[in-house]
Write a structure and sequence with these properties.
This protein is mostly helical. It has one domain. The protein is about 75% helix and about 0% strand. α1 runs antiparallel to α2 and α2 packs antiparallel against α3. The radius of gyration is 19 Å and the shape is flat. The protein starts with 11 loop residues before the first helix and ends in a 12-residue tail after the last helix.
């Protein structure tokens, strides 16, 4: 039996809020990295960590959503996604912890980093919801389980 979904459209206000939050998170993180009073190597490490977290968050959000009705991805892929996400978060946290900057600067970077990760998950969900609602509206509802019985 195919899984039934309710088609729910996000409001324009919600979509604006999601995109604005994501843009502000990228801006806050980028500004923090650029103007951080630290060595260039530390700033480069932190920028790479933020990008790693950004991309790992999108990959985790997609993998969770793709496999919500049953596993369609290989176990190896799912394991790689979660290891990548854990590595991105752990390495970025370690880099922030060891940086020789004041506590308020670390606090700013941690908050902007968490804002970036959380807004990435929200943006991924909003984009996917719109895509699926558009499919359903056209009458092309995706099949929940395409594996043979």
């Amino acid at each position: 039996m195919a899984t039934k979904y309710v088609m729910q459209r996000d409001t324009a206000g919600w979509r604006t809020q999601v995109w604005t939050s994501f843009g502000l998170a990228v801006l806050a993180s980028g500004t923090g990295v650029m103007y951080l009073p630290s060595q260039e190597l530390d700033r480069a490490f932190l920028a790479i960590g933020f990008f790693f977290c950004l991309f790992a968050s999108f990959a985790a959000a997609k993998t969770v959503r793709d496999n919500r009705d049953g596993q369609i991805d290989t176990s190896g892929w799912i394991l790689m996604v979660w290891i990548s996400f854990a590595a991105a978060v752990s390495l970025t946290a370690w880099g922030l912890w060891r940086m020789a900057i004041s506590d308020w600067q670390k606090g700013y970077m941690v908050v902007s980093w968490l804002f970036l990760v959380s807004s990435t998950f929200t943006l991924a969900k909003t984009i996917r919801d719109r895509y699926e609602a558009d499919l359903m509206a056209r009458g092309n509802e995706p099949v929940a389980d395409t594996r043979p019985a």
